[in-house]
Amino acid sequence: MEKEIKANNIIKIVFKCRRERILSYLSDGGFEGAVMFTPENIFYFTGFWGESIAICTHDGVKLFVPQLEVSRAETESFDCEIFQTERGEDSSKSLYPYLSYSKFCSDCNDFKSIDSIHKKISEKNFICDSQPFMDIRSIKDENEIGMIKKSSEIIDRLYQVCVEEIKVNLSEKELQAKLICEATNKGGSFPCYPFSLNPFIIASGPNGALPHAEVSDRSFCEGDLVVVDLTIRHKGYVSDATRTFALGGLSEEKMRVYDIVKKSQEAGLLAAKSNVIGHEIDLVCRNVIQECGFGKNFIHSTGHGVGLQVHEKPWIRPNDNEPLREKMVITIEPGIYIKSKFGVRIEDTVAIKGNNTHNNDVLTKFTKELIVVN
Length: 374
Description:
Layout: H1 2-27, E1 33-36, H2 39-46, E2 53-57, E3 60-66, H3 70-76, E4 80-85, H4 96-99, E5 104-106, H5 111-118, E6 126-128, H6 131-138, H7 142-165, H8 172-185, E7 201-204, E8 225-234, E9 237-247, H9 252-271, H10 278-291, E10 303-305, E11 312-316, E12 329-332, E13 335-338, E14 342-345, E15 348-351, E16 361-362, E17 372-373
């Protein structure tokens, strides 16, 4: 019991610090509080993930939830005043008495909700801008990094399942089913992508040439490269990694491409440290691939931040000018895609620990040596 009380007190301190950070950040713009509509931001400041709206001021956090969520919100949130409200469009009406006399910043991106609020509250006093929330969340605390480490450990276990299970005539969907089962057993859950029907990317043979291929009924064949891109949540926090496996004998072209991508990824990991700008890391990876003659086959950015979302600040891509900072968590994931033939991608999730690359913590630790499964 004493340990449980101590753990709860530590968590309360974590949430108190997060709330103080966002209020301090917003005060520079003349804001007196924040209004959160997105589940990631509400979870970040309250510990509750569900249908709700939250208001954070120096007086505390008010959490507005429909009746069906009240009991769960009371159990899962930390130091919040719970208010029962209507569902849907009427939920924002409960906010009006608390927004009348102050200037608030909100992450709301729903036009109907914004329009409804602006009919009652001046547009000058209710400004929608998600940037402050993303900026605050881009720097992780130790609790968050711990959750991402746990997600990474689950991913490492899933890659061992790949080694054990990938074989000729097994389909992409069958492998995905085995991985989903193992991930669930290990305490993992799955982010929801708006542009995909599947939790994972498992792309074999010519499907591997599509960076965001949908998992299909295609069966693995001798000589395939199999790209396996896994994103796993643990207690809300996401880790993201990709490994490419070989099935049977490989052509010299495939082995050469794999080696180039591996060297590119290694170069990116070495370049990633505090104060280095995102586009500089992207360029390091891209130059390795360009110099080997495959520049036109690297068709996406080098990486992105991870946390409560799979893709969040910071961005490791061309034209991004934001420097990395200590305790940001990012991915490094170069790839080469040969149309209608095959693809190779290697990706790790990395916690930035300072100006020295050797201090960084590569959270996904499964080997990047080419594994040939039989």
